[in-house]
């Protein structure tokens, strides 16, 4: 009775103490759960490290490109606590290369030596720099066969849901992504080559985004003090400055090409010696004429609020008949209310039912004179200019978790 009387007489202090103790208990429980996740992942990794290898075999080598500035400067600590122990226990010889400034990963890829696997530890920006630097190399054909692992450490990790099971727990995301690298299951992903008139090409795995929704999304963080209303407020304020926010663009595109059938693992029988000699003599005296057909470009005028050019990497296990990229354009007849509503819940990879969709193997964007603004290429900002976008089908190989592959397969059925 005395205790309850004291709590009632000091209800403000009691309420504050309950809140502090509740938060402290929740924090301790979260730390304990993270510790259990790390322990479970390390036990799995230890089994890989205990596997015997032949005397002439060597340990697998991995080059890790780590961006310490990702996740507000927490990436290095996250990697050392959650990913590095798993790789060490599995017997992987890792070389960690840390970037010091934006764009350095591109330059580092120019000097990277051959490795068994390449691991990118960072966010969308780090991954795009590594892919761009890799495919700009003169010998990129050799290095493009190196499997790539992606450990999501950034604020934005657009490719991670395509490769790993997504959860709200960052420790689980990192450990599961690291374990998928050890298990060795890979999948080929398409790449977009984006080239302007002067600069070197930039390469993207998800897509290019341009329009009103992109511009407003870049300003949402300014309204942080509005809490959950910041997105709606940003879209409303943008309509007060200018309306309508319609963009005119000329899109030229090539028809998609058929995706070749998967090659059979069994090689066809080799012809006998006489047939090979006859075939070589025939090709020598009468070589086949190589006729290059001119590319047939089609042109379309679009008036849109948002334009997005994307790959099929959101669901990489889905069987498609064509090697193609998707050109999606939102309609230009949005009202202010629809613009605010759609923008508040807008996913740039899922467009509305009324959007215009074109399938192509390559496209060119011709902006009107005086047009300004920025593109988002894999969530990285680039100045808007006329560009040519080409699809490089199944260009790179990435590690994928078996659970996520099964989940994506079940969605396509």
Annotate the secondary structure layout.
Elements: H1 2-9, H2 11-49, E1 61-66, H3 70-73, H4 75-89, E2 93-98, H5 104-110, E3 117-122, H6 124-135, H7 140-143, E4 148-152, H8 160-163, H9 170-183, E5 186-195, E6 202-204, E7 207-211, H10 212-217, H11 230-241, E8 247-254, E9 257-258, H12 273-285, E10 298-304, E11 306-310, E12 322-323, E13 325-329, H13 336-344, E14 356-360, E15 362-366, E16 374-377, E17 380-383, E18 387-399, H14 402-412
Parallel strand pairs: 1-2, 1-3, 3-4
Antiparallel strand pairs: 5-6, 5-18, 7-11, 7-16, 8-10, 8-15, 9-12, 11-13, 13-14, 15-18, 16-17
Helix pairs in contact: 2-4, 2-9, 4-9, 5-6, 11-13
- Strand % is 15-25%
Structural class: alpha+beta
* Biggest sheet descriptor: 6 strands, antiparallel
The number of distinct β-strands equals 18
Order of strands in the sheet with the most strands? 6-5-18-15-8-10
InterPro entries: AGK_C, ATP-NAD_kinase_N, Diacylglycerol_kinase_cat_dom, Lipid_Phosphate_FormReg, NAD/diacylglycerol_kinase_sf
EC number: 2.7.1.107, 2.7.1.138, 2.7.1.94
GO molecular function: acylglycerol kinase activity; ATP binding; ATP-dependent diacylglycerol kinase activity; ceramide kinase activity
Pathway: Lipid metabolism; glycerolipid metabolism
